[in-house]
Design goal:
Layout: H1 10-21, H2 26-37, H3 41-51
Helix pairs in contact: 1-2, 1-3, 2-3
Length: 71
């Protein structure tokens, strides 16, 4: 069943956010959560999307969590 039809596990989502807060690239974070949690690539990407690391309006991927920037 595709991941978008299942609720995301809050524990795994917290682990993804922690990896991204450590400034891990999204691809590395995906690999690091995919293996230990037994996720397929699509499900791992769903966690990254939910954490805000990828998929934001077609402007390309965010490698890290967004930070507040003052211009």
């Amino acid at each position: 069943m595709p991941s978008r039809h299942r609720p995301l596990d809050p524990e795994i989502l917290a682990a993804v956010r922690q990896l991204l807060e450590e400034r891990r690239p999204a691809g590395v974070a995906r690999q690091e959560i995919q293996g230990p949690h037994g996720l397929d690539a699509e499900t791992a990407r769903a966690y990254l999307r939910e954490a805000g690391a990828i998929g934001h309006g077609g402007r390309g991927a965010r490698w890290y969590l967004p930070t507040t920037r003052r211009h």
